[in-house]
TrEMBL record:
One of its GO terms (cellular component) is membrane. It comes from Steinernema glaseri. This is MFS domain-containing protein. PANTHER family: MAJOR FACILITATOR SUPERFAMILY (MFS) PROFILE DOMAIN-CONTAINING PROTEIN, SOLUTE CARRIER FAMILY 2. Keywords: Membrane, Transmembrane, Transmembrane helix. It is a multi-pass membrane protein. The lineage of its organism: Eukaryota, Metazoa, Ecdysozoa, Nematoda, Chromadorea. Gene3D superfamilies: MFS general substrate transporter like domains (1.20.1250.20). Residues 1-403 form the Major facilitator superfamily (MFS) profile domain. The keyword Transport does not apply. InterPro entries: GLUT (IPR045263), MFS_dom (IPR020846), MFS_sugar_transport-like (IPR005828), MFS_trans_sf (IPR036259).
Amino acid sequence: MYKMVYSGVAVSFFLGILIGALIMGHLMDFFGRKEAAVIVRSSLGIICGVCLYLSGTFCSIELFIVGHFLAGIINIFKVVLIIYAAECSPDKSRGLTAMALGSGSFIVVLLVTPLCLPNYLGNDTNWTILPALCAILAAVHLTIALMFPQSPKHLYITLHDKEKCREAILFYHGSTADLGDVEEEYEQERLYLQQGHATIKEVWNNKTLRRSLINISLCAFVPAASAINVKSQYHAAMLMSFGMTQSGAMFAIMLILIGGAPLCVLAPWLIERIGRRPLILMVCGLCVGEWALLGAAQFIVDMKLQYTDLSSALGIAGSIMGQAACMLGLLTLTAILISEMCPHTARAAISQVSQLIPIVFAMITVLLYPMAVETVGFMFNVTMVIISSTLFYACYAMIPETKGLPVDEIMHKISRVDHPPARAESSEELISRATRYGSMDSANSYDEI
């Protein structure tokens, strides 16, 4: 019974993610990028921290579940935050900006993790201080972020406010930004879908948008099928089952987080250096390796081989691979692709649909993990290795490179997969097409897709 209640509390987090995915598209389009990413997300962060603090003060499991539920909504709304940041950034630095957000989150977690040790705040007496600190940080973030302008793309394409759009461009791109070129790019993105906010049906009926949706959904499934969801609820218990003590498991988790710091600094540079596609494949490979090593550790436990040092080492090695994947963009790459692989008016629908099935899959995985380990043991890991390997191959076969390209050029690139040219373009034709970028001829060419 206790394990079912424990699993239920864990699943409440993913239920929050599911509800958040259902509402974030509407909020993005009709409430605004900044409002959804900053005001809603930070306000929920304050409420979440208060609920968790009061749950400890009054010994209320109900408030604890509500806090976990709100934390799930906050987690999925990070997608909106990354889309907002990417829309505010120049094309050449979209990936860097989005990755920097992920790196900033990691630095905060890294600073707080030592406080979670049992000798400090990770005990029955003092743990409520942690959610109180989170509520304070959310309030600080809300206060500072309110001073930043709205997304210039949202101002231009959705609100049709060119004056505020120019002010936002100068704020985010710098005073030397060429307003004419940036507005031409926004205009081409607007012309791709002129009927307003795209519905899910319209996305599916458009071959190019449908392929974008499939590509983004594949990328969204990678973290859902990784071990990060199980570890978010059971990491310490998992390492302890491999033979470690509670203090040893917490200390190992802290060292793993610290060990990921160099990749945290490297990732924003790496995504603009090697591109999105190689990074996605690298992350997929690390997820496969993590499940394999955790499965090997679980095999030793299942067979009662009494090699606790080896099983602990394998568990830590697998966790290191998972942390490396996280630092390289496991939870960020999907949002980056949403901001790059679909036009502004289709982002809300695509971001909503692409998240739903992976979220449900992650919820089921977290709910079943304790019972699965007891019944089938390491075969659970084998199943996840097979799923992750399949995703690796699918990403390798389907996801194109989008680094540094305007959204309308990326859409053209995706459309050429569905409609391959009868003959290869000559270099002169490629140059000619590049010089048409931003012209009405370029826009009209998309109507033929």
